[in-house]
Amino acid sequence: MTNADDLFDQASNNIERLGLREIPFTESPIDLQSETLQRIFTGREDKLLQTFNLFKSRDRRRILVYGRIGIGKSAFLLEVLSVLRRKKKQMLTTYISLPANLDLATTALIALARDMPNDEWAQQQLYQMGIPTAMILKERNSEVTANMVFGGKLGEKDLPVTKPQYPTVSLETLLERSQQKYPEGVLIAIDDLDKQDPSTVRKLMHDAQGMLKGRAWFMLTGHPMGMTGDLLTSERGLFDLQLKLEELDQPTTYKMLINYLNSARINNDCKDPNDPRAVLPFLPKTAKKFCEASFGKPRLFNRLGSIVLSTAADLHAETITQEVLEKGLKAAAHSLPLQAALTFQEERVRALLLARGGLSDETVLMEDLQQLGVRTFSELLPILERLEEADLAHQLNQDDTKAFAPIPLPAADEELSLNEPKQ
Asked: Distance (Å, rounded) from C-alpha 324 to C-alpha 282?
């Protein structure tokens, strides 16, 4: 009977048969400290240049990076931070994903305090919020007996866990302390505002206007539905630069595939797009087909890439032929809806989307709305955006109306034979 160790070795051998040490695709942002980020980040040169131009100014700036879910906002943000850490040694750069139920001032305070591990006052701010600190902190008190000269002693107890009463003031104090050590300034990057309800984001931004115009640089990322209302952009002038990230074009996506594969290949560092070795284990034709299937959306690219390579490994393939790619995409068509855990209503909307090949305010029928139990197309928008978030739909670029189409993956097989021998 094959034991678990043998299965582990078999899995490793299956990946190595493809010429790879590991599957390089990942949905999660690469660690900021990892050198892998430098190797795989691709494109966005014009947006990076616009961003870096601001950092040549002495004035503190506020930058908004926005775009639809899965478009690569977090990767862009981390690439900017990675470059600044290498090029501006006297600037403190901090990163945090916006936690649920926290205001922006407290979020910024946490991000900054975490990157000041040797500052006791900064660590006290974390400790009092119940957040692990880089140093052990105790509250000192004195106990005095009747003998005032000989009876006094110092005692220690844990600091109380409390919510900051004035997080904006605490942040301002911490910024003053940090600027003594970092003369080139402090950058606070707050990611994932699009994970909050748009109305919540607007309130957070309204309350944080004073903070954003304070002592620090700020970079924020969010979804256009929550971030580009009148409060956040031109009318209030809150941001100095607003960068909208779009889907990557096919040549850039092809180059991104090369970079990802190159970061994990064994004895092959070819990166020339004109050389077939650059996309191994894909064949050039299947590499282009894969890039087309990903629609230039970085997260969908990573999800599909992971499933396609896993399928190829299970098939004991050495190269990703058209047949192997087709089976990988069918496996994705089966697994993506399972990962999404759609509600019954979302499943019904997805079924209609697949049947019609697209939905918009101009094409949806009144009988469709009645069957779905809604009165207007606008009531379907949150569900369609949820499908887009799950990589089961994509929004078409139309100026006058919102339109969605399904991700055109092959119909999923009921049972995919993963142990079928390679032809």
From this structure: 10
**Farthest CA pair distance, the chain:** 93
Q: Which residues of 122-154 are buried (b: 16+ CB within 10 A; e: fewer)?
A: bbbbbbbbeeebbeeeeeeeeeeeeeeeeeeee
Tell me the per-residue pLDDT of 224-240, one tens digit each, with 9 for 90 and over: 654 445 445 544 568 88
Between 59-63, 118-122, 130-134, 294-298, the lowest mean confidence (pLDDT) is in: 130-134
Question: What does the block give as tokens for 26?
Answer: 């990942």
Do residues 302 and 70 lie in contact, with contact meaning Cβ atoms separated by under 8 Å? no
Provide the β-strand partners of residue 54: none
Question: What does CATH list as the number for 44-138+159-244?
Answer: 3.40.50.300
Q: For the chain, which residues make up each domain, given as ranges? A: 4-19+249-339, 44-138+159-244, 343-406
H or E element at residue 385: helix 381-389
Residues 6+ apart with CB under 8 A from 418: 311, 314, 315
What are 192's two structure tokens?
């994932």
Q: If we measure between CA atoms, which residue out of 250, 253, 222 comes closest to residue 238?
A: 222
Peptide bond into 160 cis (omega under 30): no
* Residue at token pair 């396609």: 308
* pTM as predicted: 0.84
Provide the 10 A C-beta neighbour count for residue 248: 23
CB contact at 8 A, 196 and 98: yes
The tokens describing 81, both together, are: 């931070």
Per this entry, what is the length of the chain?
423
Report d(CA 175, CA 169) in Å as an integer.
10
Question: Which has the closest alpha carbon to 101: 168, 175, 195?
Answer: 195
Segment 41-56, tens digit of pLDDT: 889 999 999 999 999 8
| CATH 1.10.10.10, applies to 343-406 | yes
Cis amide bond preceding 298, omega within 30: no
pLDDT tens-digit readout, 291-348: 999 999 999 999 999 999 999 999 999 999 999 999 999 999 999 999 999 999 999 9
3-class SS at 211?
helix
